[in-house]
Every structure is written in C-alpha cells, then in structure tokens.
Automatic annotation (TrEMBL):
UniProt-recorded name of the protein: YKOF-related Family
InterPro entries on file: HMP/thiamine-bd (IPR015835), MTH1187/YkoF-like (IPR029756), Thiamin/HMP-bd_put_YkoF (IPR011522)
Domain Thiamin/hydroxymethyl pyrimidine-binding YkoF putative: from-to ranges: 11-90, 114-192
Organism lineage string: Bacteria, Bacillati, Bacillota, Bacilli, Bacillales
Gene3D superfamilies for this protein: 3.30.70.930
GO MF entry, a single one: thiamine binding
Top-rank lineage group of the source organism: Bacteria
Binding positions for thiamine per the UniProt entry: 18, 50
C-alpha cells in the first residue's frame, strides 16, 4: 500500500495530553489511565502525550472515561487533543478494528466541562459549510457556548459534550472526503467556571 495515501482505513485516533493543575499530577494522569478499561484500543503513552487508536466508538468511550476519572479527583484539569481519521500511516493497531462493539466504560457520573473545538475537513473545498453544519448541531444539542476565532465553545455535562463531539466527527466526513481532523481543548473544575450558567 502507498504509505502516503490517505483515506483507506476506518481506524480513528486520538492523541491527547492531560494537564492536572496540582503537584499530584503524576497520580492524576496515571490513575485516570489505570482506572479506565482501555482493552478495546491500541494505546501508547510517552512523556508528552498519549495516543489511542481503534473503532470510533471505543476511542470516544475511552477518551471520555479517562477525562472523567481525572475530573473526579476534583483537581482542575486541562485536556488538549487531536482526533484523526482517514490517514492510517502505519497500520499498527488495525487489529483493534475487530473488537466487539460493546462499550467497556459506563460511568454516568455528571461532570460539567467547558471546551473549544475546531474541525478540519481535509481536502474538502466545501469545508466551511461542513463546519457551520456541525456548529448548528451543537446549538440544537444545547451544548453550544460561544463563537470565537479559530474554534467554537462547547460546554455542558461531559456525556452530552462527548456525544456531540462523536456525532460531529462522524458527520463532518464523507466517502468523498474521508480524512478529518478535529482538535479539542477542555477545562474542568476550573475556578473560572464560577458564575457560569450551566453547571
Ligand atoms: C494523557 C497524557 N499522557 C501523557 C502525558 C505526559 N506525562 C506528563 S506527566 C506524566 C506522568 C509521569 O510519567 C506523563 C505520562 C500527559 N500529560 N497526559
């Protein structure tokens, strides 16, 4: 296969970093990963970030679970990450596409999150209408917070926010334009949320 060719694999990837605002950052990061069932995704952690790859549903399920575990410590946590699909590069982890669909992390604990996201529908000349459509979806779902340069503000309960992100990521790509990148930046348990309406 031509390694430079994009758009042949349905594998979804998420590369992210957690930044807990505490001296106890090591146990918050490592604890969140350990308490999450990551067996349905390929995962690798280094000194800067962690990458998970696999079926879309599992990648979003694991991303949310790790974030929720970190949030439940009560510590102010920042998460930054990039979702990508349609550019397999290497095929390590493709075996995870055979995993059963059953989601392995089911914690329903409520948790307010404030976030910003940006969609990059690669090689799609009509990318702005894709972006507007997904921002409209956020408004319909009740998770839209505000417009801003280079991103859109999304907030609410972590389950509603991650549901929206997965739906937007699913809908912002097509057979004609399979390569999609989405960046997400989240702030949780921040003292700056004080006074925010939806908590
Ligand atoms: C999700 C995530 N993965 C890796 C790092 C990088 N990192 C920074 S401190 C630390 C623990 C001590 O090794 C690690 C792994 C991160 N911040 N967030």
């Amino acid at each position: 296969m031509n390694e430079l060719q994009c758009g042949t694999s349905p594998i979804v990837g998420f590369r992210f970093s957690l930044h807990p605002m505490t001296d106890r950052f090591v146990e918050v990061i490592k604890g969140a990963m350990k308490e999450t069932d990551t067996s349905a995704v390929w995962m690798h952690t280094d000194d800067v970030s962690t990458v998970i790859r696999g079926k879309q549903a599992h990648v979003f399920n694991v991303a949310k679970a790790i974030t929720l575990h970190a949030a439940k410590t009560g510590v102010h946590v920042a998460l930054n990450g990039t979702f990508s699909v349609g550019c397999p590069g290497d095929s390590a982890g493709d075996v995870y596409l055979d995993m059963p669909d059953e989601l392995l992390n089911q914690d329903e604990t409520k948790q307010y999150v404030s976030s910003q996201f940006a969609l990059y529908p690669m090689n799609n000349p009509d990318y702005m209408s894709v972006i507007y459509r997904e921002v409209d979806r956020a408004k319909e779902r009740g998770v839209f917070n505000e417009s801003m340069h280079y991103a859109s503000g999304i907030h609410g309960d972590i389950h509603d926010v991650f549901d929206f992100y997965e739906e937007a990521f699913e809908n912002a790509r097509s057979d004609a334009h399979r390569h999609l990148v989405m960046t997400v930046s989240m702030s949780i348990n921040s003292p700056s949320h004080e006074g925010s309406v939806k908590r």
